[in-house]
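Async update (no meeting this week)

Hi team, since we skipped the sync, here's where things stand on the single-chain job. The sequence we agreed to prioritize is pasted below, unchanged from the tracker. I ran it this morning and attached the output directly underneath so nobody has to dig for it. Comments welcome in thread, and please keep replies under the output.
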Amino acid sequence: MTLQDLRYVVALADHGHFGRAAAACNIAQSTLSTQLKNLEKQLGVTLFERTTKSVSVTVVGAEIVGRARQVLADVEAIISVGQHISGPLAGGFSLGVIPTLGPYLLPWLVPALKKDYPKLRLVVREDLTAPLLERLGSHRLDAALVALPVPDDRLETLPLFDEPFWFAEPKGRKPVGAKVMTEDDLHGQRLLLLTEGHCLREQALAICETADRDSEGDFRATSLQTILQMVATGLGSTLLPAMACGEARAHSVTTRPLEPGVGRRIGLAWRRSYPRLGDIHHLAKTLRDHLPQGVHRI
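Output:
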């Protein structure tokens, strides 16, 4: 039995589906199934009841899943002891970050962390919110920078800063509305949005209430960079977080602020059982002390 086996057990218990659990573990579904069958054979018990439509944890499986979670937490705590002796934020630290934040915040954050904590070995993973939260829950990330709130009882969060949204449109187009855009000014605008799974898409939909989630003609992109290129061609307009406005101007896109209070709140998320709470607060302090222009520290 290995720690990886225990991670597989926890992943399947959390997801209740072999495909989703395998994706969360970055392995093939057949590999996950084989490893868990071997573990069940080794233990002499059935951990999961499998049907063609569902996977459920057995009674004995539930006890083993609980102990597996505790073992993973204990291993994490053991590792943290040695790192604590070496000082704050020393050794390995894996940080998740959402794609609409990473390109704009990391160039400021990483040099500051290297300067303040030279013993830190930072590993950054960029992904959508849901996969990042799953990685946190399965002990494969130490913390994640995401938009708040986070609907996950396993996690703690700490707000860091508020980031306003700006309206972006093709340069030279006759402006609609005043210099500061209101939510009423956004009605009827052809907005280019990110694909499903991006929290920025859901936030834009909540603000505008104009986009058709199921429209076959809707243009959807996987990155803000692609959307900015399409805005520059005149295909439509979009909403941008403040830190992306500098890149917008480089794409011949003009930006206007939205009315105060329209934006998103960014914070750190981590497991409730995470043993290196001091490192979280050191990371938060560095983040707050080295924020780019355009955002508001909390």
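Quick observations from my side:
The domain at 3-80 is CATH 1.10.10.10 (Arc Repressor Mutant, subunit A).
Residues 211-217 have pLDDT under 50 and may be disordered.
Reply here if anything looks off.
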